[in-house]
C-alpha cells in the first residue's frame, strides 16, 4: 500500500535501508569532492593573480594621491598668476589637493562608504 508521497507505508527491510543510505552517502561524497576540487582551483587562481593585482592596486592608489596634489598645486599656481595673490592661492589649493588625494585613496581602497550606501542602509 502506498501513501500520498508514493513511498510504501510498510516497514523497510534493514538491507534496503542500508543500500539506500549507502547510495546517498556515495552521492554526497562525490558532490563534496567536486566542491572541494572547485574551491581549490579557485584558490589557486586567486593566489596567482593576487600578486599582480596587488601591484596594480598600489599603483592606482599612489597615482590618485599624486594626481590630487598636482591638480591642487597647478590650480593654486594658476590662481596666483591670475589674481596676483603670491603664495596664498598655491598654499590653499595645494592643501585642498592633498585632502582630495587622501579622500580619493580612502574611497578607492574601500574604507569609506559612499553617500548612496548610507542612504540605502538608512532605508532598511
From TrEMBL:
Which keywords does this chain's UniProt record carry?
Answer: Hydrogen ion transport, Ion transport, Membrane, Transmembrane, Transmembrane helix, Transport
Name the InterPro entries for this protein.
Atp1_alphaprobac, ATPase_put
Region Disordered, as annotated, extends over 1-55
Comp. bias (Basic and acidic residues)? 13-27
Similarity section:
Belongs to the bacterial AtpI family.
Q: Does the keyword Flavoprotein apply?
A: no
What is the name listed in the Swiss-Prot or TrEMBL entry for this protein?
ATP synthase protein I
Briefly, what is this protein's role?
A possible function for this protein is to guide the assembly of the membrane sector of the ATPase enzyme complex.
Q: Where are the transmembrane segments?
A: 61-79, 85-106
Q: Which domain of life is it from?
A: Bacteria
Q: Which residues, by range, are in coiled-coil regions?
A: none
Pfam annotation, one family: ATPase_gene1
